[in-house]
Amino acid sequence: MIALHNLTVSYRQHPALHHISGKFAPGSLTAVIGPNGSGKSTLLKSIVGLLPIEGGRSGGALAVQAPRQRIAYLPQLSEIDRSFPLTVRDCVLLGHWGHAGAFGRISQGMQASVDAAIHTVGLQGFEHRAVGTLSSGQLQRALFARMLVQDAQLILLDEPFNAVDAKTTASLLQLVRQWHEEQRTVVAVLHDDAQVRAHFPQTLLLARELVAWGNTAEVLTDANLQRARSMAEAWDDAAEICTVDA
Fold first, then answer.
1. Taking the model in full, what pTM does it have?
2. What domains, with CATH codes, occur in the chain?
3. Strand order through the sheet with 29-33
């Protein structure tokens, strides 16, 4: 579904991701973890096309085998503008944007799918509430409902359970498991190792560079986690720009 070859992404000419190669298989459920500043969010933004990648002599590249309208991306809650005058129903209805466009007709079937998604995430009765009045957990439920409506083939989640209560987390994890059972490809940035071990069969461990990638039990070892911490602590943001391909 996603192939990375020598992927390097830089901010202010210094790499946030450094020569990453590997593949996310179709239908896989993968957690992306690592110390703060290790490039986890950068990876998701690169996949969705929000950040440019660098080529290099060996041809750094990122290939996604899914059309843009079949990719759902959920940014961190802190990046979402809650001041926009949007109701919960309108927020969920935006999941049909890829099919209907700005001026497309919203069919009865689309309306019904919105109602079903709102019910699935437990927000019935909140349809006409402004998203700016919702708690963090309620807003995340609304955004998950929008992804249900979108019916995406590839789902990218950036810290989806951060600042969300335990009940909401359990409910949203159930949706993640449902997507996995439906053979959708899900990639989630997480920071809770126990949560990763319990719910995510595949893990990518980053420290700007690739530390380990594979079965979760084999990736989340004490040795790998210590190596990731050491790499993050040793990283020099003032170092010269890397010009040599890995």
1. 0.90
2. 1-66+199-246 (3.40.50.300)
3. 71-74, 154-158, 185-189, 29-33, 202-207, 209-215
